[in-house]
Design goal:
Low-confidence stretches of chain A: none
Mean pLDDT of chain A: 88
Shape of chain A: globular
Strand order of the largest sheet of chain A: 1-2
Helix content of chain B: over 70%
Radius of gyration of chain B: 21 Å
Chains: A mainly alpha (306), B mainly alpha (329), C alpha/beta (250)
Largest interface: A-B, 45 and 43 residues
Number of domains of chain B: 2
CATH topology of chain A: ABC transporter involved in vitamin B12 uptake, BtuC
Oligomer: heterotrimer
Number of domains of chain A: 1
Structural class of chain B: mainly alpha
Largest sheet of chain A: 2 strands, antiparallel
Distance between the termini of chain A: 42 Å
Strand order of the largest sheet of chain B: 1-2
CATH architecture of chain A: Orthogonal Bundle
CATH class of chain A: Mainly Alpha
Largest sheet of chain B: 2 strands, antiparallel
Distance between the termini of chain B: 32 Å
CATH topology of the largest domain in chain B: ABC transporter involved in vitamin B12 uptake, BtuC
Strand content of chain B: under 5%
CATH class of the largest domain in chain B: Mainly Alpha
Mean pLDDT of chain B: 87
Order of helices and strands of chain B: HHHHHEHHHEHHHH
Strand content of chain A: under 5%
Shape of chain B: globular
Number of strands of chain B: 2
């Protein structure tokens, strides 16, 4: 039983790390540009699709990864320059509508380009298979790679945002963008950088998860909602908040889904537990968010202070 | 005394006129549609018109809080779903009486709005958007798990509601006119609310909530009541939707549906109420006709929405006025 | 002496490590115009925000009209008769000047939870609103959208809004801010006419206004009251001269 718990904890960490990769870009874009980007989820999806496409062309996961990241970045920058740039400073409703339009465009655009059937991306041979953990437990190497990659990115972001000049500008921008601009910093270049980098992280998440999940239209929708929950709980504009909240959500959601029915069986019969369990598990993170917002209406570590 | 001779105009006459002409046109068209429908086979126009009007009710209700209260709710589809499920669940137990189902639908949506609004309204801005989304998702997942009522697959309704035995929803033309009456009622109710003392406080809070508090208004209370009314009207829309579709499903409450509702309000221009009707009609008509052209209509519709936002101020109306604005500055 | 309309007892407010209000005690008597002056950063606006309820003090008590309002939210204090104007103009720009003031009247005339009846046409609200606008000289501008008024007119509108609340105490946060000489002269005349009708706390930088209007003056430095008394007493106080007034006194 405890080995099962341990596996689920690892799975929860993997989900958490994935959520962090997506939430990081989302919270920065929101914090620095005050821009609600619903299209972040399709950025994640696009990364996965591009990886599949490039793999088909090159046969190498690594090459596909690099090319897909580059293409994701290019697409994101094009989007920023052509569309989003005109929308900064506009009402949040305008952001919602424009990015909703982009979701529609891409969700069905990939269907047009690649068909509606789920695609897959094979794990590189070296990293496929499972590894033996403590207690005779076997766990897929690739999932550990994801956890490792995510933690590495988190560490890199921590250094980048906390200890470099550009990171300082980003943090300042998240606290007060107008002030930063008034100090003579090229704010539109900063925005482009933040946006492109965030999109690349989301694309990277999509590429890394593609071998495990199936790549299909709409795969970004659910994860987008989770990412929003993460940044709201973590506090908008805060990478640290996003990291902690992402891990928390990843663990709560995974453990909740795995053990809800079992836990409920302690209080009620097996049949009602099986009915109520999954519903409760799905709702768990939303209940968590509602509680956090009730106690801290601006999240746990809001960049703009409480 | 101020230097220049000031002119005391009454309230702007142009917008007042628009407020009479446009709704007049809308309801005129809607009332006359069934006659045009006589030439089109298989009740197609009637069904489309009914569908448009039902979503228009929800859009108008949403405009009340978004356009006049600046409360962007991303979970409003939940209220529609609750109203629909009230009908569906009662029908599953053999109860098809309007006088039971309608109050049930309204009560469910109003109570959910009060409960979730009480928590959500303590937050502002994007946090409010997110927490309303969360509550919408909770409703969605609850409905998906209701195995005895269809769960994920939804629930078919064997027979539409009757009003003390009279099958008011049974025939397409009858259904159409009942929905039209409901839309008219919703529209005029919301109009009255906006012009009332209550509405003025709500609108004032949208412009400057701090100022309203320092005048002595407890803004939270007003917003909560507005939110509850809006939720209730969406419950009415859900009640009608269940009767029109003979079917309820958790998809009625998805966040995508909530997003579509927001788009409908935005397309027509927020803050006018009749704009919400235009927006709902535009969205559904575009969806209807584009989907006949290609099954990938969203690939066209998506960028279209983007263009409306980037170049139009105030939705479609703004988009068509753009050439004028460019010329006159 | 009669019960003061406002009594502040040992107020204290810090933001992080910065103490902005430091053991501040003050009394405003009935019918008195009490000016609060002090250099920038002395904590004047923070003080007004605490009195009106937009900020909660960390320690201390605020007693208004004999009632401890320290725990009451802003809207409750406003409903109890505490009116304020804002240093940075805070009106409803999309509403006409008349509607701005009518809303203030509406706040104290019965329930606003009415969803029927056209509020804009209610004479019971518009008549007192027009009267208040007339008092500040904005009568002919009643139907102009407030956002289109000149800066001086907006400051006058702020005053009209406060008047329309039939306040028991008026808090004025730098009403002359940003106005030219002619406008501020007008406002001073207006405030002089209002003197005695209700007690006022006037935060101001404009020394002409302060010495022309105030019955008593409190000088704020670093969040505490350095001196408090009649204008002559304050003028003569060497501490005040050293810390603040300099040659503005002449």
């Amino acid at each position: 039983m405890s080995s099962l718990v341990f596996v689920q904890i690892l799975n929860g960490l993997q989900l958490g790390v994935l959520l962090f990769l997506i939430a990081a870009g989302l919270t920065l874009v929101f914090g620095v540009m005050d821009f609600i980007n619903l299209a972040h989820g399709v950025q994640y999806m696009l990364g996965a699709y591009l990886a599949v496409a490039f793999y088909g062309l090159t046969g190498s996961f690594l090459v596909a990864l690099v090319l897909a990241l580059a293409a994701t970045l290019a697409f994101a920058l094009a989007l920023e320059v052509l569309v989003f740039r005109r929308l900064y400073g506009r009402d949040h409703l305008d952001h919602v509508m424009a990015t909703f339009g982009i979701i529609l465009f891409l969700n069905h655009g990939v269907k047009l380009a690649w068909g509606a059937a789920p695609l897959s991306l094979p794990i590189p041979d070296l990293l496929s298979g499972s590894v033996s953990l403590m207690g005779g437990l076997r766990y897929p190497v690739w999932r550990l790679v994801i956890i490792g990659a995510g933690l590495a990115v988190a560490a890199g972001l921590y250094v980048l945002v906390g200890h470099t000049r550009i990171g300082m500008l980003v943090r300042a921008g998240a606290t007060n963008a107008r002030l930063v601009s008034a100090l003579g910093v090229d704010i539109s270049r900063l925005f482009m950088l933040v946006f492109g980098f965030g999109a690349m992280l989301a694309g990277f998440a999509g590429i890394m998860i593609a071998p495990i999940l199936s790549v299909e239209p709409g795969m970004g929708d659910t994860i987008l909602i989770l990412a929003f929950v993460v940044i709201v709980i973590g506090g908008i504009g805060s990478i640290r908040g996003a990291f902690l909240a992402a891990l928390m959500i990843g663990l709560v959601d995974t453990l909740g889904r795995s053990f809800a029915v079992d836990v409920l069986r302690l209080f009620m019969g097996p049949s009602p537990a099986r009915t109520v369990g999954p519903a409760l598990a799905s709702m768990l993170i939303y209940v968590l968010m509602a509680i956090v917002l009730y106690l801290r209406p601006a999240g746990l570590f809001p960049a703009k202070g409480r | 005394m101020a230097a220049a001779a000031p002119i005391d105009l009454g309230p702007a006459p142009a917008t007042a006129r628009a407020g009479i002409v446009v709704p007049g046109l809308i309801f005129g068209v809607l009332a006359g549609l069934p006659i045009a429908a006589l030439v089109v086979p298989e009740n197609y126009l009637l069904d489309l018109g009914t569908r448009i009007m039902i979503f228009a009710i929800a859009a108008v209700a949403l405009d009340l809080v978004v356009g006049y209260g600046a409360l962007v709710s991303f979970g409003h589809a939940a209220f529609i779903g609750l109203g629909a499920y009230a009908v569906g669940m009662l029908a599953a137990h053999g109860i098809g009486e309007v006088l039971v189902a309608l109050p049930a639908a309204l009560a469910a949506s109003v109570l959910f709005a009060l409960a979730t609004g009480a928590v959500s309204l303590r937050t502002k801005g994007v946090y409010f958007i997110m927490i309303t989304l969360a509550f919408g998702q909770m409703a969605f997942f609850t409905a998906s798990s209701l195995a005895p009522y269809g769960g994920d697959d939804g629930l078919t309704i064997a027979a539409r509601n009757t009003l003390v035995g009279i099958p008011i929803f049974k025939y397409p033309r009858g259904l159409y006119y009942v929905v039209l009456a409901a839309l008219a009622g919703t529209f005029f109710l919301c109009r009255a609310i906006v012009a009332s003392r209550f509405g003025r406080v709500l609108r004032g809070a949208k412009e400057n909530a701090t100022r309203m508090a320092t005048l002595g208004f407890e803004v939270y209370r007003f917003q909560l009541v507005a939110y509850a009314i809006s939720g209730g009207l969406c419950g009415l829309a859900g009640f009608l939707l269940a009767n029109a579709n003979d079917f309820v499903s958790p998809a009625y409450m998805s966040w995508q549906r909530s997003g579509e509702l927001i788009i409908m309000v935005l397309l027509g221009g927020i803050g006018t109420l009749y704009g919400a009707i235009i927006g709902a009609a535009s969205y559904l008509l575009i969806e209807e006709f584009l989907s006949r052209v290609t099954e990938y209509w969203q690939v066209i519709f998506g960028p279209f929405l983007v263009l409306v936002v980037v170049f139009g101020r105030g939705g479609l109306v703004g988009l068509f006025a753009w050439p004028w604005r460019r010329r006159h500055g | 002496m009669a019960e003061p309309v406002l009594r502040l007892e040992h107020l204290r407010k810090s933001f992080g490590g910065l103490v902005v209000t430091d053991d501040l005690s003050l009394e405003v008597g009935a019918g008195e115009l009490h000016a609060v002056i002090g250099p920038n950063g002395a904590g004047k606006t923070t003080l007004i925000n605490q009195i009106s309820g937009l900020l909660q003090p960390d320690h201390g008590r605020i007693v208004f009209a004999g009632r401890d309002v320290t725990g009451l939210p802003a809207h409750a204090r406003a409903a109890a008769g505490l009116a304020r104007s804002f240093q940075v103009t805070s009106i409803l720009p999309g509403f006409s000047a008349l509607e701005n003031v009518a809303l203030a009247v509406q706040a104290r005339s019965g329930s606003s939870l009415r969803i029927f009846g056209r509020a804009a046409e209610e004479d019971a609200l518009n008549a007192p609103a027009r009267a208040a606008l007339g008092e500040v000289g904005l009568g002919p501008r009643a139907h102009v959208p407030a956002g289109h008024l000149s800066h001086g007119e907006k400051r006058a509108l702020e005053l009209a809004i406060a008047l329309a609340m039939a306040p028991k105490l008026l808090l004025l946060d730098e009403p002359m801010a940003g106005t030219g000489r002619e406008e501020s002269g007008r406002l001073i005349g207006l405030l002089r006419d209002l003197k005695g009708r209700f007690p006022m706390v006037l935060v101001e930088h404009d020394m002409t206004a302060v010495f022309a209007l105030a019955d008593r003056i409190s000088v704020l430095i670093y969040g505490r009251v350095l001196a408090s008394g009649t204008p002559d007493a304050v003028r003569a106080d060497p501490k005040v001269a050293a810390a603040y007034l300099g040659d503005e006194m002449e």
